[in-house]
């Protein structure tokens, strides 16, 4: 079964595992569109598909609040960010949410939060050879651009590069 719509204005939301005896395996497009003050979402393990715009900006902002309350997140949450200037082709729309963690630990913290809530997301690097749709991207984008650490192994035989390192940074380091 697909959960098509819930009508409520606030509070916690628990996606039931069954409705009238049918397992809930998907959340339909715009399913949470009438939730104005959603404080939490619990999604059962049955759900394998989350529809377009089922997740509202409020839900994503709640993730940011929860991560920031922990106090150990390093990086930025950006909203309504133009993606075209970040791509090599210089085309495309906006990202509703662009998260740029500054450390691997912060990256993993956000990724785990998105996965635990079963939120659709996209991981982007330097946006080389990426074409963003003109209408933009509705779900959170997790960027690796600030993950630029470089280090040599103790025996100096391996170079460890962060996912956001440019070739020029690697060349300069060597």
Describe the 3D structure.
Helix content is 20%, strand content 29%. It contains three helices and 13 strands, in the order E-E-E-E-E-E-E-H-E-E-H-E-E-E-E-H. The protein has a four-stranded mixed beta sheet. The longest helix has 14 residues, at 57-70. The mean pLDDT is 80.
Labels describing this entry:
single chain; 3-stranded parallel sheet; 3 helices; 4-stranded mixed sheet; 174 residues
SSE topology:
Elements: E1 2-3, E2 10-15, E3 18-19, E4 22-23, E5 26-27, E6 37-43, E7 49-50, H1 57-70, E8 75-82, E9 94-101, H2 104-116, E10 122-124, E11 141-143, E12 150-152, E13 159-161, H3 167-173
Parallel strand pairs: 1-5, 2-6, 5-7, 9-11, 10-11
Antiparallel strand pairs: 3-4, 8-9, 12-13
Tell me the span between the first and last alpha carbons: 55 Å
Shape: globular
Largest sheet: 4 strands, mixed
Oligomer: single chain
Q: Percent range for helical residues? A: 10-25%
Give start-end ranges of low-pLDDT stretches: none
The overall pLDDT, averaged over residues, is 80
Instruction: Work out the helix count.
Output: 3
């Amino acid at each position: 079964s697909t959960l098509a719509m819930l009508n409520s204005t606030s509070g916690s939301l628990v996606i039931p595992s069954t409705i009238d005896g049918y397992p809930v395996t998907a959340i339909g497009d715009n399913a949470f569109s009438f939730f104005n003050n959603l404080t939490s979402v619990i999604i059962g393990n049955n759900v394998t598909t989350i529809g377009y715009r089922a997740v509202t900006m409020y839900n994503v902002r709640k993730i940011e609040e929860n991560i920031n309350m922990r106090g150990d997140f390093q990086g930025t949450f950006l909203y309504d960010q133009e993606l075209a200037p970040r791509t090599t082709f210089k085309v495309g729309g906006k990202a509703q949410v662009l998260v740029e963690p500054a450390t691997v630990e912060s990256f993993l913290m956000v990724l785990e939060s998105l996965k635990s809530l079963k939120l659709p997301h996209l991981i982007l690097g330097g946006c080389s050879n990426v074409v963003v749709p003109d209408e933009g991207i509705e779900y959170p984008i997790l960027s690796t651009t600030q993950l630029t650490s470089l280090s040599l192994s103790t025996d100096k035989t391996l170079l460890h590069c962060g996912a956001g390192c440019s070739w020029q940074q690697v060349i300069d380091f060597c």
